[in-house]
Structure to design on (1242 residues):
C-alpha cells in the first residue's frame, strides 16, 4: 500500500529510504525531502501550543497530485514518512496509524541491537522485511 | 487575461497603474534613468486632505490585463507618461501624432496622460501645454518629479470625481452592468429588468465603488462598500464577483492592519495610520480565512486572478507566521493551470513559488522549486538555453539541500545527508557550468562531487564521474586556487584527500650509515644547560609537549630524506597518482615527486615520498600534493581524518660528507644482530690471517675532515686468541682532508685464532698407539698431573671447533666534515666482518719432557691435521713436519724455560679489580702468549701455498705444563771442578784429584725457603738400563755426602761446598737427592729439579 517508506534522523538526514522500484527513486527522495519542511513546521507548532500532547502521528503532511505523504515523529525526534498512492482511497487514517506503529516497533528493535550505532543507516534485515510487508500488501 | 503578476500583494488594491513608455528611439539607459525618477513619486499626499494616492508605475503592461479594469480597478491603466526624444521642430508633429496613437491603446481607461520631450529647443518648446513638457536634454530636467506630482494630482481629481459620481448614483434605475471580458457574451439576451439582474448590477457596482474608495484613500468607506457588495452578491450567487468583493474586503483590512506593507518592501510605503496595528490583531484570523476562501472558492473561472489571490494570501500569512496555511495556498497555486505558458513565464512562476516557500520558512520546498526553475531555464524547447541563469539558480538551491561547496564541511566523519538528492544537484551544477563555458568551474564541482560523495557512488558511477573529470581536465586542469564567481560566491579548492586515502604518515630515519650522531661532549653540554639533573620527572613532563610532535632522529641537509605513507585506493579501478610530493615548511625542501599506480581496491600500500632539504633547521611535513585525474590537490595532514602520524617535525642538521665503502672481499648477507651498511664474509682456517682492503670514497659534496676506526667483536662463545682485527690508519689519515670524489684505502688484517686443543674423541683414539705420553721419570709427579687433564678438557675447550665456527666483528668508521662538523655531528659507517673458521690443526695432547738441561725442556705436541689437505708444520728451530689429512703426529720442541716472573706485569689496576680467578686466568693467558711467541708454530697447506697460518698452543697449555715450562724460582747451580754443570755438559776430572762440588741455591721466589738437606748419590749408568749405585770403592766423599742448606730468604743465595775423589776412571753420575723433609713438600716438585751431573774421571796426566 505504501509506495515509499523513509526513516529520517533527528538531524534530518535519511537513515533508511525505500520506495517501489518501478518508479523513479529520486522522485521519492525529493518528495520525502521536501515533506520535512512540513514536519518541521508541524512540530514547531506542537511545541508551542500542545506541548503535553503525546500524539506522535503528524497526519497528512501534504497531498500531491499522485501521492499522499504522512508523517510520524518519535519522542527522540526520529521521523517516519510514508508515501501512499492518492488513488488508493481505501486507506483510512487508522490504517496509516497502525502502519506507523508497526514501523516504530520495528525501529525500536533496530535501536535495541547493541551492534547498531545510532545515526548510521539502517541495514537490519528484520526492519527491511517489515517495510516490505507494508509496501507489498496493496499489490 | 493571461499574464499573472507574480509580485502582487494586497496593497496593490490601493494603487493606480500608470504606464511609462518610451516613444520612438529613446536610449535604454536614458529611459530607465527618467523612469526611475518618475517611479520615485510612488505616493502623493493630496492637498487639503489626509488622503494619499499610491501609484504603481509600469513600463510594460499587457493591454489584455487592462480589460479586467472594471473587475478590479487596480488593474486599470489610468495614466500614461510617454518619454521621447525630439531634436527638430519638424519631428515634433510626427511625435505628437504618435503620442496620440499610444494613448489609444489604453484609451478607454486613461484618466490623463503626459508627454516628456527631450532634446527639443526653440519656439516649439516655448509653448505652454499641460500635457507636454519640454526638456533640452536628459540631464537637464530638474522638475520631472514636480511634473509627475502634478500629473498624479490630476489623476486623483478624476478618480475622486468618478468615485463621488458612482457612490452617489444610488437611484439604481439604470446601473451599468460591469463585467469581465469573458462574461460579455453570457449576458446577451438576458432580461435586464429582472430583480436578480438588478441586484447583480448593484452588487457589482458597490464593489466597484469600494475599489475606487480604496484607491482614493477612503479606507473606511471602502470597507463599508465591500460589506454591502458581499451581501448583495452572495444573495445572487455571483461567485466571481463575490470573490472579488471579498478579496477587496480582505485587502482593505490587510492594508489597515499592516500599514508597513506585505510585500517586504517596507520602505516603499510610509505608515500613515500607526495606531491601527494594535487594533487589527484581533481580527486577523477571520480576515485571512476570508481571504483564503476568496482564493479557493470563487475564482475557479479566472486562473490568473486566483493565482494572484493565492500569492497575496501567502504574503499575508507569512507575516502572520502561519506557515501551514500558507503552504496550503501555495500547494493550491501549484495546481492552478494557466494553460499554455511561455517558458519564461514558467521560470518566473517557479522562482516566485520558491521565493514564497522561502518566505514561510520551507527551505526544502523552496530549493525544490528553484531547481525546477533552473531546469526550466534550459528546457530543450528553449532555443537559447540560459545556462548562466540556470547555474545561478542552482547555486541558490544549495542551502535548501544543506550542501555547502566547502569540502572542509565534509571532512568530519561520514557524510550524512540526502546523498541521492545532493548528488543529482552536483551533477546538474557540473553540467550547467560546463555548458556555461566555464570548464574550470565544472572541474571544481566535479572534484567536489567525487571527494565528498565518494561513499555514495556505485562502482559504475565512480567510473563515469572520473572519466568525465578526466575529459574536463584535459581542457582545463584543476588546481588549488579559490574560484570566485561574479556574484561574490567563492568556491574553495577541493583537495582529493580520498584519492588515494592516506592512513598513516611516518617520517623515515636515514639509512644507518647516513644517520648523523652528535658528539657526546657537545650533547652533554646541551643537557646540562637544560637541567642540572641527569633525570628529573619534572623536566620530562615540561618537555613532553614540545617534544610530542618532534621526532628524535635527524635528517641531514643535502641528503635524500623519506616519508612513508600508507595509502589505499578506494576506486574499483587502477588509480594513477602523478606528481605526488611532500608539502613542507621551515626549511628549503626540494621535493622529488613520484608517480604511482595503485591497483583497484588495493589494500594498504606503502608509498615513499622523497625530497632533499636544502638548508638546516626544523622541517615540518604539512601534507602532500597529488595530481589525480588531472586535478592537482594539496592535502594537509591536519585536515585528514583517521591518519596515524608519529609526528611531523624533524630537525635537519647541516650537511655532512658521505662515504661509500668498498672492500676487496665480496659482500655478503648482513650479520644477524647488528644494523650494518655492508658486511663481508670470508672463510679462514684456524690460525690463518688474511688482509682486507677497505676503500672509502667520499661521494658527498662536503670535504671529509676526520676519520676514526673502531672495532667491536660480537660476543662469541669461542675463546679468541690474539687480536681478531688489526689495522693501521696512519696512511689513511695522512690523506685527509678528503675532498669530494676522492678515496682512501685502509688495510685491515683479519686473523682467526681459536682454540687449537683437540677433541676428546680424537684424543682417545690417539692413545691407542701406546705412545708414552709423559716421557717423564716414573717418579715424576707429572704422571698424576696429566690424568686430570682429560677431565679438565671438556670444560676448558668445551666448544672445540667443529666445522663452521663463525667469528663476527663490526668495524665502525666515524667521520665528519663540512658544516655538520661545526655543529658537532658525525656519521658512522659500519662494516660487518664474518669469518667462518675451518679447523686447521689440533693439538690433541701436550706434554713436557725434561731436557738434559734444567733450564730447558721438551714440549711434546700431538698434532692432528683436521683439514682435507696435506700440510706442513714448522716451529722455531725445528724441522718441518708433514702431515697428511687426518693424520696425527707427535712433535717435540725444545724450549728454553721461561722466567715468567721477570715478565712485565701489564696492568696493575686491572689486576687489582679482577677477582683472584680472573687474575689467574689473565696470567695464564699472558704466559701462554709468551710461550706461543717463543714456539712460533706455523702450518702451511701445501696444495695452496698462500694458505698458511700459525697454530697457537695458548689454549692447549694448562697450569701444570706451564709450571714445567717455567723456570723454577729456586735456581740450583752445581759447579763441579769450577765448571758449571748442566744438561749434557760433562765435567772432566782426574782420578785421584779432589773434585770440588759446589751446590748453589738462589732463591728467586717471593718467600724464604729451606732449610733443605741434600744427599749426593753417585752412580754409573751402563746405558742398558742398569744403573750401578754400588760405588763405595770407586768414589769417596771428602767430607760428608750430605749437605745442609739453611733458610734462604728471597733474592738471597746459599752455597754449600763439598768434594769428591774418584778412585777409578770412568763415567760417573751424581744424583743429588733431597732428604725427606717436610718443608720441601709444600713447594712444587719442579722447583727441586736439580741437574744431574755427569763427571768423566780420567787417568791422571803423567807428567
Amino acid at each position: 500500500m505504501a509506495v515509499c517508506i523513509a526513516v529520517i534522523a533527528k538531524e534530518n538526514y535519511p537513515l533508511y529510504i525505500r520506495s517501489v522500484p518501478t518508479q523513479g527513486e529520486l522522485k521519492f527522495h525529493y518528495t520525502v525531502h521536501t515533506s520535512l519542511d512540513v514536519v518541521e513546521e508541524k512540530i514547531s507548532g506542537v511545541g508551542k501550543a500542545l506541548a503535553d500532547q503525546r500524539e506522535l502521528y503528524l497526519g497528512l503532511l501534504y497531498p500531491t497530485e499522485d501521492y499522499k505523504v504522512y508523517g510520524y515523529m518519535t519522542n527522540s525526534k526520529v521521523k517516519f514518512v510514508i508515501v501512499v498512492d492518492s488513488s488508493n482511497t481505501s486507506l483510512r487514517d487508522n490504517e496509516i496509524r497502525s502502519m506507523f506503529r508497526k514501523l516504530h516497533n520495528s525501529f525500536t528493535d533496530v535501536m535495541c541491537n547493541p551492534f547498531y550505532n545510532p545515526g548510521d543507516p539502517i541495514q537490519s534485515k528484520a526492519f527491511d522485511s517489515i517495510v516490505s510487508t507494508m509496501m507489498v500488501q496493496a499489490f | 487575461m493571461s499574464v499573472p503578476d507574480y509580485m502582487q500583494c494586497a496593497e496593490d488594491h490601493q494603487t493606480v497603474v500608470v504606464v511609462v513608455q518610451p516613444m520612438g528611439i529613446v536610449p535604454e539607459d536614458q529611459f530607465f534613468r527618467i523612469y526611475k525618477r518618475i517611479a520615485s513619486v510612488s505616493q502623493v499626499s493630496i492637498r487639503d486632505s489626509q488622503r494619499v494616492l499610491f501609484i504603481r508605475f509600469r513600463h510594460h503592461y499587457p493591454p489584455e490585463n487592462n480589460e479586467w479594469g472594471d473587475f478590479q480597478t487596480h488593474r486599470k491603466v489610468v495614466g500614461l507618461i510617454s518619454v521621447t526624444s525630439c531634436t527638430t521642430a519638424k519631428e515634433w508633429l510626427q511625435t505628437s501624432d504618435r503620442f496620440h496613437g499610444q494613448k489609444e491603446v489604453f484609451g478607454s481607461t486613461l484618466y490623463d496622460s503626459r508627454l516628456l520631450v527631450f532634446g527639443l529647443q526653440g519656439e516649439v518648446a516655448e509653448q505652454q501645454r499641460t500635457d507636454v513638457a519640454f526638456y533640452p536634454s536628459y540631464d537637464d530636467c530638474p522638475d520631472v518629479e514636480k511634473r509627475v506630482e502634478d500629473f498624479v494630482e490630476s489623476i486623483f481629481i478624476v478618480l475622486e470625481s468618478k468615485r463621488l459620481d458612482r457612490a452617489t448614483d444610488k437611484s439604481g434605475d439604470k446601473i451599468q452592468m460591469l463585467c469581465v471580458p469573458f462574461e460579455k457574451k453570457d449576458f446577451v439576451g438576458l432580461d435586464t429588468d429582472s430583480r436578480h439582474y438588478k441586484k447583480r448590477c448593484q452588487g457589482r457596482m458597490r464593489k466597484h465603488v469600494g475599489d475606487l474608495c480604496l484607491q482614493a484613500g477612503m479606507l473606511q468607506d471602502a470597507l463599508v462598500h465591500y460589506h454591502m457588495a458581499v451581501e448583495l452578491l452572495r444573495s445572487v450567487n455571483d461567485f466571481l464577483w463575490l470573490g472579488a468583493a471579498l478579496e477587496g474586503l480582505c485587502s482593505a483590512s490587510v492594508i489597515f492592519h499592516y500599514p508597513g506593507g506585505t510585500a517586504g518592501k517596507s520602505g516603499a510605503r510610509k505608515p500613515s495610520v500607526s495606531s491601527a496595528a494594535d487594533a487589527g490583531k484581533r481580527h486577523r484570523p477571520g480576515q485571512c480565512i476570508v481571504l483564503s476562501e476568496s482564493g479557493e472558492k470563487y475564482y475557479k473561472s479566472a486562473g490568473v486572478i486566483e493565482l494572484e489571490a493565492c500569492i497575496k494570501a501567502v504574503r499575508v500569512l507569512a507575516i502572520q507566521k502561519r506557515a501551514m496555511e500558507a503552504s496550503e495556498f501555495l500547494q493550491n497555486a501549484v495546481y492552478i493551470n494557466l494553460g499554455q505558458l511561455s517558458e519564461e513565464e514558467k521560470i518566473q512562476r517557479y522562482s516566485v513559488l520558491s521565493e514564497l516557500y522561502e518566505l514561510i520558512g520551507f527551505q526544502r520546498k523552496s530549493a525544490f522549486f528553484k531547481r525546477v526553475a533552473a531546469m526550466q531555464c534550459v528546457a530543450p524547447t528553449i532555443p537559447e538555453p540560459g545556462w548562466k541563469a540556470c547555474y545561478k539558480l542552482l547555486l541558490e538551491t544549495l542551502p535548501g539541500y544543506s550542501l555547502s561547496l566547502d569540502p572542509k564541511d565534509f571532512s568530519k566523519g561520514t557524510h550524512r545527508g540526502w546523498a541521492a538528492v545532493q548528488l543529482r544537484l552536483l551533477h546538474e551544477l557540473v553540467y550547467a557550468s560546463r555548458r556555461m563555458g566555464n570548464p574550470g568551474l565544472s572541474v571544481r564541482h566535479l572534484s567536489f562531487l567525487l571527494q565528498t560523495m565518494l561513499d555514495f557512488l556505485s562502482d559504475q558511477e565512480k567510473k563515469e564521474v572520473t572519466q568525465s573529470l578526466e575529459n574536463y581536465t584535459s581542457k582545463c586542469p584543476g588546481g588549488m586556487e579559490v574560484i570566485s564567481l561574479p556574484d561574490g560566491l567563492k568556491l574553495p579548492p577541493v583537495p582529493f584527500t580520498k584519492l588515494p586515502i592516506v592512513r598513516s604518515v611516518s617520517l623515515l630515519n636515514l639509512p644507518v650509515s647516513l644517520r648523523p650522531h652528535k658528539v657526546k661532549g657537545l650533547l652533554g653540554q646541551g643537557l646540562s644547560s637544560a637541567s642540572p639533573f641527569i633525570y628529573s620527572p619534572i623536566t620530562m613532563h615540561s618537555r613532553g609537549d614540545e617534544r610530542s610532535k618532534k621526532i628524535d632522529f635527524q635528517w641531514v641537509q643535502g641528503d635524500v630524506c623519506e616519508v612513508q605513507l600508507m595509502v589505499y585506493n578506494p576506486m574499483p579501478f587502477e588509480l594513477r597518482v602523478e606528481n605526488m610530493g611532500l608539502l613542507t615548511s621551515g626549511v628549503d625542501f626540494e621535493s622529488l615527486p613520484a608517480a604511482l599506480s595503485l591497483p583497484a581496491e588495493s589494500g594498504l600500500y606503502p608509498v615513499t615520498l622523497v625530497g632533499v632539504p636544502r638548508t638546516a633547521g626544523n622541517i615540518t611535513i604539512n601534507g602532500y600534493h597529488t595530481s589525480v585525474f588531472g586535478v592537482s590537490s594539496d592535502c594537509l595532514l591536519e585536515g585528514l581524518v583517521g591518519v596515524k602520524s608519529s609526528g611531523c617535525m624533524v630537525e635537519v642538521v647541516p650537511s655532512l660528507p658521505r662515504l661509500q665503502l668498498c672492500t676487496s672481499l665480496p659482500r655478503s648477507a648482513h650479520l644477524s644482530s647488528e644494523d650494518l651498511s655492508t658486511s663481508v664474509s670470508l672463510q679462514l682456517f684456524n690460525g690463518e690471517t688474511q688482509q682486507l682492503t677497505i676503500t672509502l670514497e667520499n661521494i658527498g659534496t662536503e670535504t671529509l675532515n676526520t676519520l676514526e676506526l673502531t672495532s667491536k667483536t660480537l660476543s662469541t662463545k669461542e675463546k679468541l686468541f690474539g687480536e681478531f682485527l688489526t689495522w693501521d690508519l696512519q696512511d689513511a689519515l695522512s690523506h685527509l682532508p678528503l675532498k669530494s670524489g676522492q678515496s682512501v684505502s685502509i688495510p685491515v688484517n683479519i686473523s682467526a685464532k681459536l682454540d687449537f686443543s683437540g677433541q676428546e674423541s680424537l684424543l682417545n683414539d690417539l692413545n691407542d698407539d701406546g705412545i708414552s705420553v709423559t716421557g717423564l721419570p716414573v717418579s715424576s709427579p707429572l704422571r698424576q698431573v696429566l690424568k686430570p687433564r682429560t677431565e679438565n678438557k671438556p670444560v676448558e675447550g668445551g666448544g672445540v671447533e667443529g666445522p663452521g665456527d663463525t667469528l663476527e666483528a663490526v668495524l665502525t668508521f666515524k667521520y665528519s666534515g663540512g658544516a655538520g662538523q661545526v655543529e658537532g655531528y658525525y656519521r658512522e659507517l659500519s662494516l660487518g666482518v664474518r669469518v667462518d673458521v675451518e679447523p686447521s690443526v689440533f693439538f690433541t695432547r701436550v706434554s713436557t719432557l725434561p731436557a738434559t738441561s734444567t733450564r730447558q725442556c721438551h714440549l711434546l705436541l700431538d698434532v692432528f691435521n683436521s683439514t682435507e689437505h696435506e700440510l706442513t708444520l714448522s716451529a722455531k728451530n725445528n724441522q718441518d713436519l708433514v702431515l697428511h689429512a687426518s693424520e696425527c703426529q707427535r712433535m717435540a720442541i725444545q724450549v728454553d724455560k721461561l722466567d715468567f716472573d721477570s715478565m712485565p706485569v701489564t696492568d696493575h689496576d686491572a689486576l687489582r679489580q679482577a677477582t683472584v680467578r680472573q687474575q689467574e686466568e689473565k696470567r695464564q693467558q699472558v704466559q701462554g702468549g709468551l710461550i706461543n711467541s717463543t714456539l712460533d708454530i706455523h702450518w702451511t697447506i701445501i696444495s695452496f701455498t698462500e694458505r698458511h697460518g700459525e697454530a697457537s698452543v695458548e689454549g692447549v697449555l694448562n697450569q701444570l705444563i706451564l709450571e714445567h715450562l717455567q723456570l723454577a724460582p729456586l735456581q740450583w747451580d752445581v759447579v763441579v771442578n769450577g765448571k758449571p754443570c748442566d744438561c749434557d755438559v760433562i765435567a772432566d776430572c782426574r782420578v785421584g784429584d779432589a773434585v770440588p762440588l759446589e751446590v748453589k741455591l738462589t732463591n728467586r721466589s717471593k718467600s724464604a725457603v729451606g732449610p733443605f738437606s741434600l744427599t749426593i748419590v753417585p752412580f754409573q749408568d751402563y746405558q742398558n738400563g742398569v744403573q750401578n749405585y754400588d760405588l763405595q770403592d770407586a768414589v769417596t766423599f771428602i767430607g760428608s755426602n750430605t749437605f745442609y742448606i739453611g733458610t734462604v730468604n728471597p733474592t738471597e743465595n746459599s752455597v754449600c761446598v763439598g768434594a769428591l775423589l774418584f778412585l777409578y776412571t770412568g763415567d760417573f753420575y751424581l744424583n743429588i737427592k733431597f732428604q725427606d723433609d717436610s718443608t720441601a713438600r709444600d713447594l712444587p716438585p719442579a722447583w727441586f729439579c736439580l741437574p744431574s751431573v755427569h763427571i768423566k774421571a780420567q787417568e791422571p796426566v803423567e807428567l
Remarks:
- Chain A has a mean pLDDT of 82.
- The longest strand of chain A covers residues 2-8.
